[in-house]
Structures are given as C-alpha cells and as structure tokens.
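haha ok so turns out i had the wrong file open the whole time. this is the CORRECT one, sorry everyone. sequence first:
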Amino acid sequence: MRQQLPADVQAPALARQAVRRELCDSLGTEELADIQLMVSELVTNSILHSAPRAGDVTLEVDANDPIRIMVSDRGEDFSLDHDGWTGGWGLALVERLSDRWGLARGNGTRVWFEMDRN
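then structure:
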C-alpha cells in the first residue's frame, strides 16, 4: 500500500488510519499500537524537518513478513546529529520498538522500519 499524505498536522492521524486499515486483521492490538506510534513519529519528523518545503509525505506499507513501513519526502534536511538538540525522542522510540530501521538519502529522505511477525 502506498499513500500520499499532506504535509500538515493531519498527516500523522491519516498515516495511523492507513496502517490500521492495512494491518488490523493480521496483528494484535499491542503490535498495531506500536506500529502506529512509530508511523506517527516518522511522519511528524518528515513534516518538521522537510516536507513543508518539499511537498507531500509518502507512506508505504508492506504487510508481508517482515512488515516494512517507509515514510519518505523530497527534502534533504533531516540529520541524525543531535549535539545540542532539544527535540523529541521519536527515532529512539523507533529503534527500541522495531526489529530494524534505517535512513536513506538521495532524491529525498526515506526512513523505514521493519517488524518481524511473531
């Protein structure tokens, strides 16, 4: 599933809804809640760091095993350098809750995570 999200305050809620529609029949309540939380964090990061200047945010959900979620935008502003940073801890949450995650740059920014099915 692939969905374009507006780069505004509605995007995290729209992303959570899309994930719920795609995965609710195949996951337990706790796993779905964890994935929705991580998606909210990635979409929010995308909007805060680049999407308002770069356009819409794209959400991709691969419901296979492992479940793979990717949030991408056309911006290049995202940085993992947190010296003196006073922002939230969304990526630390993604690192803790997911089985794998990563960041890819080039023609925009893509942040992804994977969850193994139990």
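The two ends are 21 Å apart (CA to CA).
again sry for the mixup
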